[in-house]
Model the fold of this input.
Amino acid sequence: MYAAPKIYEDVVVGEPNISMYKVKPIYDDLTVPGTEDVTWARDIEARQDKCLSELELLRQRVLKIETDCCGVSENTSKLDLVIGCSVGSPAVYMAAIIARKVNCLIKVFSHSSNTKEVDSTITNKLLCVNSGETDYCGVNIIYKDTAAPYFMACPGRQVAVSGLSNILRYIARERNYTSLYNEADLETAALTDEILSLIDSLEQRSNASASEIGQILNSITGYIKSSTYLAGETLSIADIALCCVLVSLDSKLVPNTLRSYLSNTIRSNYEMRVLKAFVNWIPHES
Done:
């Protein structure tokens, strides 16, 4: 009879209440009497190492799922942002997404230069976005007649950044939202910028003919034929920009492929779910 030594000694991954242990190399001091062949022990250790690697990959996947579903972002500190835009601008929907991402409220104002009547239905839906969130108001919307939305980093100080895609780039850089726009990944960043230029064209031509809008939409559709999202397999600022523009378009102009894409994007991403309050032409979650 031989007594095996204590084998749970070397911690591989250690976290509160979550620990995995690696068995001590048992062939160092435990051999079969009369032989020096420890192949069997090395095989056991190899299988053990494989199991630990797979468990670590599983743990990382679980953490990613928790992050995606629970809205935990890279930078959880509060964001003070004032967005000025016209009443029907896609920037309205973008503001709702940003507010959800940083878990804060939205306030809506009408600027003295706004000559259009404020759409109370949109305002009421924005107020619904606030339901269940914190008391912190970090994103303000000022309805104002402007050709392109602009924003101020804090009330009273306008920053020279305008246009939907430029605002999203600025916020992603300033808040270090690398999962939405990672400039270190040159290929993906270039692809994202390329798609954003198409979305900018779509936003600027929102009142153009149906055929002109259709051509742009068809070009954009090509990017989701081989991937889940526009710039790959993860959500980016290109997806946020496109979804905001799609919501503001006449539903009859949006092809079925993009309808399905919008529905899946809203359903699968915490920040995007606020768009359900504004969309009545795609299937909603029950």
